[in-house]
Amino acid sequence: MSSDLQLSLFDNNQSATFQTDSIPANAKIPIPPGTYQNMEQIGEHCNRCHRCELGNSRTHAVIGRGNPQASILIVGEAPGQNEDETGLPFVGRSGKLLDKILESVGLSAETDVFIANVIKCRPPNNRPPTAKEIEACKPYLLEQIRILDPKIILLTGATALKGLLSDKRPISKIRGQWIEWENRLCMPIFHPSYLLRNPSREPETPKWFMWQDMQAIKAKLDELKEQL
Ligand code: URA
Asked: Which of 189, 202, 206, 221 is most buried by its number of CB atoms within 10 A?
């Protein structure tokens, strides 16, 4: 055996050898759980993905930002223009609001959460993603969840709720409720862009409900940390 080959047997830097050429371009071909070891591999794959038409128009696939070790995963809808340009989720106006909402209960967007989206590429003119696009992209989200192993998943808005849990109920009816899924606690919450359109802080308004939900989320996180 050549010494190079012998050395490569001990090389556990999986990203360096990860083959993205094998990406199934047909969305009907599944991407099995365990395909990826880390977010970088998912990112590499998504940036070459053509499982739906959005692969033709993206600048960057948007995988996530935040702390991959965090207990909370926040799932949004889809990248917008700022996200497509930067490759980072929630960096526009609704992202700024999301960061402020987290800060209001003492959580940091950098250290206490990981933020991702149901679909990784920007739909033209920011239209909502289609069911076909969501299905084509779902294996990436499921792999993110497997790798991150979050205890709590916050689903911002109806697309995230429908995309992950196939739950079609209106967000206004079930926001703030804990839903157990795959041994994790999920909570549907309002999407920050909805709060931008509804700025009142009066009782029983969307912003007021968001404040109640965030306090419940923080209390649950503290409770889970005490159990560790
Ligand atoms: N930016 C994102 O990345 N996702 C959203 O859902 C909205 C804005």
From this structure: 189
CA of 80 to the centre of ligand 1 (A): 6
Give the mean pLDDT per block of 10 residues along the chain (228 residues).
43 49 80 95 95 97 98 98 98 97 98 98 96 97 98 98 97 97 98 97 97 98 93
Q: Is residue 134 part of a domain?
A: yes
- Model pTM? 0.91
Residue 69 domain-assigned (yes or no): yes
Residue nearest to atom 8 of ligand 1 (CA): 90
Strands across the sheet with 184-189, in order? 65-66, 113-117, 72-76, 152-156, 184-189, 179-181
Nearest C-alpha neighbor of 146 from the set 37, 49, 27, 227: 37
- What is the extent of the structural domain holding 102? 18-227
- Looking at residue 214, which CATH number applies to its domain? 3.40.470.10
